[in-house]
């Protein structure tokens, strides 16, 4: 999924949730178990990405931009958001 110019910075296992597309309010689990989530840096483009693969499917493949903020809403939950979205 990542290219040669991207370098992994950090990887961990986490329970991943996604916003429910039907309600746009509720969180639904992306899988039954914790998934590997990796943070990559592309020095050529000065860009960070968060990537998680579940089976053969990309669960997370998001670019982190300077406009984004991370909000930790509880001890075990946090989310990235772009105020322009």
From TrEMBL:
Domain WH1: 1-85
Signal sequence range: none
GO MF assignments: G protein-coupled glutamate receptor binding
A Pfam entry, by short name: WH1
Principal location: cytoplasm
Subcellular location: Cytoplasm; Postsynaptic density
Keywords from the UniProt entry: Coiled coil, Cytoplasm, Synapse
GO cellular component, one term: cytoplasm
SUPFAM superfamilies found in the cross-reference section: PH domain-like
InterPro entries (alphabetical): Homer (IPR045027), PH-like_dom_sf (IPR011993), WH1/EVH1_dom (IPR000697)
Similarity comment: family membership: Belongs to the Homer family.
Name of the featured protein: Homer scaffold protein 3
Lineage: Eukaryota, Metazoa, Chordata, Craniata, Vertebrata
Gene: HOMER3
